[in-house]
Amino acid sequence: MRPGLWVRLAARFLQRSWRSTLVLGLMVFAATGALVFLSSLAVGTNDAMVRNSVGLLAGHVLCRDLPPGVRAADLTGRGIRGALVRREVAATLRSATRWSPVELVGVDPEAEKRFTALWRKTAAGRYLEGASHDLYLGQGLARQLAAGVGQSVEIVAADRSLLGRYTVCGIFRTGIPALDGSLAFVPLSAWPAADARRTAAVFLEDGAVAAAVAAALSRLPGSPRFEAWSDFMPDLKQLIDLNYVSMGIVMVLVFAVVSLGIACAFVIFILKNLREHGILKAMGVRPVESAALILAQVTGLTLAAAGTGAAVGAGVVLLVARTGIDLGALTSHNPYFAVSGIIYPRLTSYSLGVPPLLALVFGLLAAVWPVAMVVRQRAAEILRSL
Amino acid sequence: MNTIDVQGVSKSYRSGRGRVAALSDVSLRVAAGGALAVLGRSGSGKTTLLHCIGGLERPDAGRVFCAGTAVHTLGPGALARFQRRRVGFVFQSGNLLSFLTVRENLALPLELNGILGRERDRRVAALLEAVGLPGVGAALPRELSGGEIQRVAFARAIAHGPAILLADEPTASLDSETGERLIGSMLEWATGHAATLVVATHDPDVVARVTAAIRLKDGRLEEPA
Ligand SMILES: Nc1ncnc2c1ncn2[C@@H]1O[C@H](COP(=O)(O)OP(=O)(O)O)[C@@H](O)[C@H]1O
Ligand SMILES: [Mg+2]
Question: How high is the ipTM of this complex?
Answer without folding.
Answer: 0.94
